[in-house]
Design a protein that fits this description.
This protein is mainly alpha-helical and 244 residues long. It has one domain. Helix content is 78%, strand content 0%. It has 10 helices and no strands. Helix 2 runs antiparallel to helix 3 (40-64), helix 3 packs parallel to helix 9 (198-219) and helix 4 crosses helix 8.
Length: 244
């Protein structure tokens, strides 16, 4: 009984973070699962399955609030998927330490841009979207995903906000939907090759689903500038984790 409660609390905490910031939460789930004794490949596959559940719950909530730009999500994914495949192939030639350092620098830069930029669009509407930059977001997020084994969600929100000029709440909602399809494709592949621990994912599922729902609801009650500052802080923490 205690084990079930611990898994629920863990899933709830990760789900809230994922739903609140439109990210997958894999940077928390993977190390947690390895601490529980799962091999790294199983941890990655199971993490993607968990992300499917949390992003589905958060996507549903963002959809209800009308904070999802489907055209942006679809266009971004069209470029992310092939870029992720290319990134995975390039890992053969590039050193992981160099990649992690470059990725950390990118996160620090994005954190800076989020802290220094101001919301130019009202939260109640999404106009003047720079669709020309959406493919670039897809390529950057996809390459990072393939090169570093991350979901790419941690890049979606700041890039949507800074390059595509999407208000922060729309960026989070759109990222959640994009993440759902990315994680679903990845988890199905990992399941096919036997790298998903369904029993572990089921234990975390109730907390992840509830947390994703609650986190997404919180987005619409928090001032956008506070959201941006909090997200910038998360970017810095992840950057430090990459290089230390």
């Amino acid at each position: 009984m205690i084990d079930y409660l611990i898994n629920f609390i863990i899933g709830l905490s990760i789900g809230i973070i994922a739903g609140l910031f439109g990210i997958g939460g894999g940077f928390l789930i993977v190390p947690l699962l390895t601490l529980k004794g799962l091999p790294i490949h199983d941890a990655i596959g199971t993490s993607l399955t968990c992300i499917v559940m949390s992003s589905f719950a958060s996507s549903y909530t963002h959809l209800k609030h009308g904070r999802v730009l489907f055209k942006v999500a679809a266009l971004k994914e069209a470029f992310s998927i092939p870029a992720a495949l290319l990134g995975a192939y390039l890992t053969i030639f590039l050193g992981k330490n160099i990649l992690k350092s470059l990725f950390a620098l990118l996160l620090i830069y994005l954190s800076y841009t989020m802290l220094t930029s101001r919301e130019q669009l009202p939260q109640s509407e999404a106009k003047e979207i720079n669709y020309r930059n959406v493919p670039l977001v897809g390529i950057i997020a996809g390459l990072s995903s393939g090169l570093l084994g991350i979901s790419g969600g941690i890049l979606n929100v700041p890039l949507f906000n800074s390059l595509v000029q999407i208000p922060i709440s729309y960026a989070i909602g759109t990222s959640s939907v994009a993440l759902f399809f990315t994680a679903l494709a990845g988890s199905l592949m990992h399941y096919h090759i036997g790298q998903v621990r369904v029993d572990v994912a089921i234990l975390l599922a109730p907390g992840l689903i509830m947390g994703g729902y609650l986190g997404a609801k919180l987005v619409h009650n928090i001032h956008p500038e506070k959201l941006k500052r909090a997200f910038a802080a998360i970017l810095v923490l992840i950057a430090l984790k990459m290089v230390l």
